[in-house]
Amino acid sequence: MTQDLPNRVFVVTGASGNLGRAVANALAKAGAIRILLDRSPTPDHGADADRTLAVGGLDLTDPDAMRPALDQAVQRFGRIDGLVATVGAYADGTPVHEQGWADWSRMIAANLQTTVAACQAVIPYLLAHGGRIVTVGARGGVAGSAGAAAYAAAKAGVMRLTESLSEELKDKGVTVNGVLPSIMDTPQNRVAMPRADASRWVAPEDVATVILFLLSDAARSVTGALIPVYGRT
């Protein structure tokens, strides 16, 4: 096991998702302690149960729903050192003038509201000693595309949130950065795009590698960055 983050305590929201699992696995290999939060009943904690608190069935759009798990984590492990907010969802195909507000609400809730809620829940635990926050934007939030306005707007919101939080917290010892993946190589994307060349996509494990750098001491002077992870797309 590498020891890049020995005994650091990190919260991962969306821990049962493709990227969440990749981040959780990378943290375990780096020697970190993991707080895995998800809406699914049983987030996968792998074989490292003694150094993992996995809590499922949570409303990840509500910071109050996460705080009991965070309190439990502090009681068990003594502190929290950072957050990786991986929750997200994608939808496209509908022109704006034909799209109901329910579709917008779903994209905003899944991408932006979950990130805001996770930050609101975790930041109070970081203010005493500093820490790291990593958000997940998207290439699709850098520029809009036809049929994906709601997703693009929600991910752009995550990016502006990241920049704003970095300004709010930079004098408090907390860095805030984001990664911007393009299409990730997931089972769901392979089903949705069977004719695409998946070899050009980004593996979740590669995104997790960038996230671990941002959590590490090597990135202590990096804040407010939005890092493209585009692969060959």
Describe what this molecule looks like in 3D.
With 233 residues, this protein is α/β, with parallel strands linked by helices. The chain has one domain: Rossmann fold. The chain has helices at 18-29, 63-77, 101-126, 149-169, 187-192, 204-215, and strands at 9-13, 33-37, 52-55, 82-85, 131-136, 174-181, 226-229. The chain has a 7-stranded parallel sheet with strand order 3-2-1-4-5-6-7, sandwiched between helices. α4 (149-169) links the parallel β5 and β6. α2 (63-77) runs parallel beside α3 and α3 runs parallel beside α4 (149-169). The chain is globular and about 50 Å long. The two termini are 32 Å apart. The mean pLDDT is 94.
Could you write a compact summary of the structure shown?
This protein has 233 residues and is an alpha/beta fold.
Architecture blueprint of SSEs:
Blueprint: E1 9-13, H1 18-29, E2 33-37, E3 52-55, H2 63-77, E4 82-85, H3 101-126, E5 131-136, H4 149-169, E6 174-181, H5 187-192, H6 204-215, E7 226-229
Helix pairs in contact: 1-6, 2-3, 3-4
